Amino acid sequence: MKRDAFLAIADPTRREIINMIAFHSLNVNTVASHFKVSRTAIYKHLKILSQCGLVQINQQGRERICEAKLEKLQDVSDWIEPYQKVWATRLDSLDNYLHRLQSQNEKIPEQVKKKKPVKRT
Questions:
Q1: What is the pLDDT of residues 2-34, one digit of tens each?
Q2: Contact, 11 vs 37, CB < 8 A?
Q3: How far is CA 80 from the centre of its chain?
């Protein structure tokens, strides 16, 4: 069964596995030793990552080596890009608004700023 990268990154354990092997390959036992779940659970996560095309597991002697294949994450990046532009624009607008408020606040006399609010009962 072919799965997509979105399924792979949907789970925090799988994201952590990807982070672990992104820069250097590790054997399955080393990967499993970093988690407080069973090896069987880690094997299931690795199987999903493999089906998603993000991990390749190679047999080297008695060891199974996990190697990251991160090209499929480009699909996620492509999907996020339009939203990233929208949010960057919105955050820039918020930043400008906050700067305007701050500059207006600096123009208010210090006596007015320190004035305590009236307590109503």
A1: 688 999 999 999 999 999 999 999 999 999 999
A2: no
A3: 12
